[in-house]
Design brief:
Layout lengths: L1 H5 L1 H33 L4 H16 L3 E7 L6 E7 L9 E2 L4 H9 L3 E3 L17 E11 L2 E11 L7 H54 L4 E5 L4 E4 L1 H7 L3 H4 L12 H12 L4 E9 L5 E12 L5 E10 L1 H95 L1 H9 L4 H18 L1 H9 L5 H11 L4 H8 L3 H14 L9 H6 L4
Antiparallel strand pairs: 1-2, 1-6, 2-3, 4-5, 5-6, 7-8, 7-11, 9-10, 10-11
Helix pairs in contact: 2-3, 2-5, 3-5, 10-11, 13-15, 14-15
């Protein structure tokens, strides 16, 4: 009895542990059930991934986790969602066998590591040194890994257990179902969007073509394979005078009897798949008026690729035909006029030939005359050259004469005037000698010639007064030298200023006269 009671405490402890394990498993199952219900209703992929990771962390009692999904390349996975420590690791890529995600991908089974820091398969990134216990669960679809859920403990001595792996594996199956459902929903949504877009494009295309047919100025009719009209545009009804109700669902009888043979041949070609283009024939209106028309026709098909009917476009070319007839008549008239004109031009051509011959004779005479004038021009040129030589020689003779006169005056006259100036003379004689010397200098200087050539209307007395003014003589001195009164000198000065254009100006007369020597 004693030994039986001694084992009772250990049995109670074992029973309590089993009860705790059952409670924990029950809590896991309850959480798993609630999680599965919450995941199944989510359809947004990003939101679903975040919810899966959040609930996996809740089930395993940690705040740090991530989900790897296949990357752009088939040989790597990329971290798409992260919580806690892994929030800063988003975008990390791993290949098969690299780190926890790559090892789970390669093994296609859960992987549990008690101490990531000392684990040989860890990534060499030093930022991962604080990771301790870590577990990876594959998202399996058949025999293919569709992703990896990873959970970790940071600075926490607590370890993941096999029970955690069991619960998380069951959770991963539910999560994969939710992901596949979300992907299926996304695919269906995309297909619906594409289908709606295609339907909208089709409706827009139908409306565009209907609008095109409705606004076409040419008549258009659509027949089924039995020859009944299924559509006519307003231009058809207007051109042929029928109402649309009279045409739809009926065969249109508007082919004249004489046009049936060519029309049947065109129909036979169309049934063989040939396109009818710009076929000219005749059709009559409801009022019986015959129209010249140009027809183009093509077969259209149903969705199964079978002949459904044909589309016929007609163009009223009656006005064009009338115009062609008028043009033909006008062309014939024009040809007659051209023939008459050609005959007239032939006569004119003969006359022109005669005129051309006459012109050639005149041109020959003109060339002879031109040759004679050229010879005369050459002769006149030689004469002109000779005259230029003579004129140049005359200028040279004139210059030589001036130089001789100047030399003779300086050698034969000036010395005697200088001797007179040095001899004893009274005042009047000395004055006259000085005037004689001054005038002689003026005669041989260019001043008098320039003054006389520019002002030919100067009197001799005005020239003498202007010369003495240029030499700086006063009115009194000039009057004494010329034996005239002072008023007479003033009168001559007034006339000189008037003739030089200096009247009523302040220009100095002597300064102006000196400018003629420059």
């Amino acid at each position: 009895m004693g030994s039986l009671f001694d084992d009772l405490p250990s049995r109670e402890n074992l029973l309590r542990q089993e009860i705790e394990a059952l409670k924990q498993q029950n809590a896991y199952l309850s959480a798993l059930h609630e999680t599965s219900l919450g995941l199944i209703d989510r359809l947004d992929r990003k939101e679903l991934l975040e919810s899966i990771l959040h609930r996996a962390c809740m089930i395993s009692g940690t705040e740090h986790g991530y989900i790897y999904l296949p990357g752009p390349g088939k040989d790597e996975m990329q971290m798409r969602v992260g919580m806690g420590f892994f929030n800063g690791q988003l975008g990390r890529r791993v290949k098969k066998g690299e780190g926890m995600g790559g090892r789970v991908w390669d093994a296609e089974a859960p992987v549990l590591v008690d101490d990531y820091y000392t684990w040989p398969g860890r990534l060499t990134d030093s930022s991962l040194d604080t990771l301790q216990s870590i577990v990876g669960i594959p998202l399996m679809s058949g025999s293919k890994v569709q992703g990896v859920i990873g959970l970790a403990r940071v600075n926490d001595k607590k370890r993941f257990s096999e029970a955690d792996i069991h619960i998380l594996s069951r959770f991963a199956q539910l999560a994969l179902i939710a992901l596949e459902k979300a992907q299926l929903y996304a695919d269906v949504k995309q297909q619906l969007a594409e289908r709606k877009k295609a339907e909208a494009i089709l409706r827009e295309s139908e409306e565009r073509y209907r609008s095109l047919l409705e606004s076409s100025p040419d008549p258009v009719v659509v027949y089924d394979m039995q020859g009944n009209a299924t559509y006519v545009n307003p231009a058809f009804a207007m051109t042929f005078g029928f109402s649309i109700d009279e045409l739809i669902g009926k065969q249109i009888d508007f082919v004249p009897e004489e046009s049936w043979p060519e029309t049947r041949r065109a129909i036979d070609q169309m049934k063989k798949g040939k396109k009818i283009s710009l076929f000219e024939t005749k059709r009559f209106t409801k009022q019986g008026k015959i129209l010249d028309v140009q027809i183009s026709s093509t077969i259209y098909f149903d969705r199964k690729g079978r002949h459904a009917g044909n589309i016929v476009t007609l163009r009223d070319i009656s006005a064009l035909k009338r115009t062609e007839k008028e043009l033909k008549q006008y062309r014939e008239l024009l040809e007659e006029r051209v023939e008459d004109r050609t005959t007239e031009l032939a006569r004119t051509n003969i006359q022109l030939k005669q005129e051309i011959e006459e012109r050639k004779r005149m041109e020959s005479a003109l060339r002879r005359r031109e040759k004679e004038l050229k010879a005369q021009s050459h002769h006149l040129g030689e004469v002109n050259t000779a005259l230029k030589v003579l004129l140049k020689q005359r200028e040279n003779d004139k210059t030589e004469l001036q130089e001789n006169v100047l030399s003779n005056v300086k050698e034969l006259v000036v010395p005697y005037i200088q001797r007179l100036q040095k001899s004893s003379m009274n005042t009047n004689q000395a004055t006259l000698v000085n005037i004689l010397d001054s005038n002689l200098n003026n005669i041989i200087s260019p001043f008098i010639s320039r003054l006389s050539s520019k002002f030919l209307n100067f009197t001799p007395m005005e020239i003498r007064v202007a010369t003495l003014v240029k030499e700086g003589k006063t009115n009194k001195e000039i009057a004494e030298m010329l034996f005239l009164s002072k008023n007479t000198i003033l009168f001559h000065r007034h006339n000189i200023r008037t003739k030089l254009g200096l009247k009523n100006t302040r220009i100095n007369l002597r300064t102006h006269l000196l400018s003629y020597e420059q």
